DNA sequence: AACAATGTTCAGTC
DNA sequence: GGACTGAACATTGT
């Protein structure tokens, strides 16, 4: 599920885990917790607490303090391709930040890849069937571009509008701009009526501004409606679909290494 | 069985 | 050496 909108909702869920004493940490999944060894994260955090939940693009990190109140190592959290954050209270009920839509995903215990238990009995869990999520101490954020939700129009123009790579690849490049994923990218390009494979450096200022406006709307809409999959074109990303705006056939291919759908008439 | 999946990363190539 | 591409990563669902 996770693109910027889903990650923002996960970040909000993490806020209900703040200021609670950490009693235990299960960091035994060596893939999800790489490059740490099992027990490394537990040793660093047990006895302390989380004090703030941040997000940039699809990456989250939690500020921590030790038992003495001194700052501890930040804990980075990434949801990968399908991870989710679950925070429970003392009696096991769900914490805040739950998805707008009810969720029927089965909760197999083996899909909990990382678990933090608080002294009040509640938990913070990274639930991820595909196991591409990640948790690590002192995450490196230096390769991340500015957040897609707050980047300025000028910055968007100069960062996105360059290079020979397809504009979609540019939108997906997290070092250019952090937060846009595959569905959001297709939605933005369709809203702005721009071909996904147009070389980014060829786009004029008006086109880049249109992309910027479309991105802002797409992100705000997705946050309000519960996810990147709620975009307007999303229902038309399948064979035999017609563009909901002009009726021309929707077509697909691979652009920027990802499956891409676009309107054969308006985005040529 | 083969392939795609709302993501990231690393090894290659130009 | 930077920019760019494609495969690999772990796992599930179609």
TrEMBL record:
Domain (Formamidopyrimidine-DNA glycosylase catalytic) ranges: 2-133
Pfam families: Fapy_DNA_glyco, H2TH
SMART domains hit by this protein: Fapy_DNA_glyco, H2TH
Catalysed reactions, as listed in the record: Hydrolysis of DNA containing ring-opened 7-methylguanine residues, releasing 2,6-diamino-4-hydroxy-5-(N-methyl)formamidopyrimidine
Keywords: DNA damage, DNA repair, DNA-binding, Glycosidase, Hydrolase, Lyase, Multifunctional enzyme
Keyword DNA repair: yes
Keyword DNA damage found: yes
UniProt similarity note: Belongs to the FPG family.
Protein name, as recorded: Fpg/Nei family DNA glycosylase
Species, as recorded: Pseudonocardia yunnanensis
């Amino acid at each position: 599920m996770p693109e910027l909108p889903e990650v923002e909702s996960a970040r909000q869920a993490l806020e209900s885990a703040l200021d609670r004493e950490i009693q235990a940490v299960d960091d035994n999944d060596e893939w999800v917790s790489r490059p740490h060894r099992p027990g490394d994260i537990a040793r660093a955090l047990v006895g302390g607490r989380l004090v703030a939940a941040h997000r940039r693009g699809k990456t989250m990190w939690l500020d921590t303090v030790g038992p003495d109140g001194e700052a501890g190592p930040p804990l980075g959290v990434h949801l990968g391709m399908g991870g989710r954050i679950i925070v429970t209270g003392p009696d096991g009920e769900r914490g805040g930040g739950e998805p707008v839509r009810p969720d029927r995903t089965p909760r197999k215990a083996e899909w909990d890849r990382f678990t933090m238990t608080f002294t009040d009995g509640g938990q913070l869990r990274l639930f991820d069937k595909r196991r591409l999520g990640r948790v690590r101490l002192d995450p490196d954020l230096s390769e991340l571009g500015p957040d897609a939700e707050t980047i300025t129009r000028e910055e968007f123009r100069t960062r996105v509008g360059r290079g020979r790579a397809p504009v979609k690849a540019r939108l997906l490049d997290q070092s250019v701009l952090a937060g846009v994923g595959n569905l959001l990218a297709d939605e933005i390009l369709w809203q702005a009526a721009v071909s996904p494979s147009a070389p980014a450096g060829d786009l004029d200022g008006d086109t880049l501004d249109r992309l910027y406006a479309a991105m802002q709307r797409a992100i705000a809409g997705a946050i309000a409606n519960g996810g990147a999959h709620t975009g307007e074109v999303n229902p038309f990303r399948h064979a035999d679909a017609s563009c909901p705006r002009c009726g021309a056939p929707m077509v697909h291919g691979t652009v920027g290494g990802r499956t891409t759908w676009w309107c054969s008439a308006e985005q040529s």
